[in-house]
Amino acid sequence: MIGGFIFMVKDKVIIITGAASGIGKETALKLTEGGAKLVLSDINEDALKTVLKDVEKLGGDAVIKKTDVAKKEEIQELIDFAVEKFNTLHGMFNNAGIGAMTPFLELGEEEYNQMVQINQNSVFYGMQYAGKKMIELGIKNGVIVNTASIYGFVGAAGSSHYNMAKAAVVSLTKSGAQALTPQGIRVVGVAPGFTKTAILEAAPDEMLEALKDAHMRGHLLEADEIAYVVRFLFSDESRAINGSTVLCDDGFLAFK
Ligand code: NAI
Questions:
Q1: Which atom of ligand 1 is nearest to the CA of 151?
Q2: Which of these, 45, 73, 158, 250, could form a disulfide with 215 (CB 3.0-4.6 Å)?
Q3: From 3.40.50.720, 3.40.50.300, 1.10.10.60, 3.40.50.2300, which CATH number describes the 13-250 domain?
C-alpha cells in the first residue's frame, strides 16, 4: 500500500489513564483512528463520558471506567475490567497526572506525597499490574507507554516534586523494560514539552508566553502532536524503541 497508512494498532486492546482530557483524550482519538479498542479511565467521569461520545462518533469501540490512579486497588480493578470487557489486553498508557506550582521551600508533606502517589506510584503499579496480566494472558507483543515530561530530565525550583516524580517515570520505564521484555512486553516513555492542556491552566499567562520561546517553533505543543507519537509507540512499527523515553518537546531540551 504505497502512500497509505498502515494501522498497526488495529484490534489492539489498550487502557488509557487520564483519558478525559488533554493528551489522554487526544490519544484516545488517534488510537481509535488506528482501529484500537479502548478502555478509557479517569477520575473525572463526566468528562470521560464526553470523550466516549467523541470516540463513538469516529466509529470506535471503547468502554469507560472511573479510576483514581492514586489508589492501587483501583488500577487493578481497571485492568480486570478491561480483560472482562475485551477478553485480552495488549497495551497500557500510564498517563494520568497532576501539575505543580509550589516553590521548593514552601512544599509541604501532603502535597509532596500526593504527587508521588499520583504521578509516580501509579505508573509503577500500572506497569506491574498490566505486565502481570499480559503475561498471564500469554501476550507476546504487549506495550506499556508511560507519560514522563521534559521536567523528568531537569530540575525546577517551582515544581521539584513534579520533576522528581517524572524522573522516576523515566527510570521506571528503563527497569520495567528490562523486567518485561523477556516476557514479550515493551516499555517506553513519552516526554512532552509544554503542551496546551488543562494542566497548564494554573500557570500565569506571562509564564506561558515566555515558555513559547523555549520551543523551537515559538509556540506551545498541541495535545494531538503528542498523541501521534504515543500511537506510533503502541504500534509494532516502533518495536526498536524500548526502555527509552521519547522527547516530544520541539527542541526544548536541545538548546537548554
Ligand atoms: P490534563 O489535565 O488535560 O489531563 C490529565 C488528566 O488526568 C485529567 O483528565 C485528570 O482528570 C486526570 N487525573 C488527574 N488525577 C487523576 C487521578 N488521581 N486518577 C485518575 N485520573 C487523574 O493534562 P495533560 O497535559 O493531558 O496531562 C497528561 C500527562 O502529561 C500528565 O502525566 C502530565 O504530567 C504530562 N505532561 C503534560 C505536559 C503539559 O505541558 N501539558 C508536559 C509534560 C508532561
A1: 43
A2: 250
A3: 3.40.50.720
Q: Which residue in 125, 129, 151, 162 is the catalytic one? A: 162
Cα(156)–Cα(163) distance, integer angstroms: 7
Query: Domain limits of the chain?
Result: 13-250
- Please tell me the predicted confidence (pLDDT) of residue 6: 61
- DSSP strand pairing (245-248 vs 185-192): parallel
For range 168-178, the mean pLDDT: 98
Is the confidence at residue 231, as pLDDT, over 80?
A: yes
21 CA from centroid of ligand 1 (Å)? 7
Q: Minimal CA–CA distance to 149: which of 128, 133, 169? A: 169
